[in-house]
């Protein structure tokens, strides 16, 4: 086992958690029907804590309960931020200072 292996998250089957949470809060991407994002995230956190989900998996649980419209926005935002991060790092590397 290498040092880096200690930082990897352990595999966890999330399906039993999803099955045990039939009334989980959904975030569908409709501003008129969805709760505020912070409230929704608090509900996801509380459900994860109640079901003993390791903190490293909370984001996966939250993504599971995104509706198609919200998930599409999330993917666009994630890709945009990832690209901006790459550009920032590249500019830092290329700068003559």
Radius of gyration in whole Å, from Cα? 18 Å
What class do helices, strands and sheet pairing give?
mainly alpha
Task: Tell me the number of strands.
Answer: 0
Strand/helix succession: HHHH
> With helices defined by DSSP (H or I, 4 residues minimum), what is the helix count?
4
Profile the largest sheet: none
Residue share in helices? 40-55%
Textual characterization of the structure:
It is a single chain. By secondary structure, this protein is mainly alpha-helical. It has one domain (17-94). It is built from four helices and no strands. The protein has helices at 15-19, 37-50, 58-64, 68-94. The chain is flat. The N and C termini lie far apart (40 Å). The model has no long low-confidence stretch (mean pLDDT 84).
Write the layout of secondary structure elements.
Layout: H1 15-19, H2 37-50, H3 58-64, H4 68-94
Task: Using brief descriptors, characterize the structure shown.
97 residues, mainly alpha, 4 helices, 55% helix
Short description:
The protein has four helices and no strands.
């Amino acid at each position: 086992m290498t040092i880096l292996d200690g930082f990897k998250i352990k595999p966890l089957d999330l399906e039993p958690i999803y099955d045990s949470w039939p009334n989980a809060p959904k975030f569908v991407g409709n501003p008129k029907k969805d709760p505020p994002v912070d409230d929704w995230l608090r509900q996801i956190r509380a459900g994860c804590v109640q079901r003993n989900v390791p903190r490293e998996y909370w984001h996966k649980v939250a993504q599971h309960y995104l509706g198609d419209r919200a998930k599409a926005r999330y993917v666009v935002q994630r890709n945009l931020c990832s690209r901006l991060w790459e550009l920032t790092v590249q500019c830092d590397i290329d700068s003559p200072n």
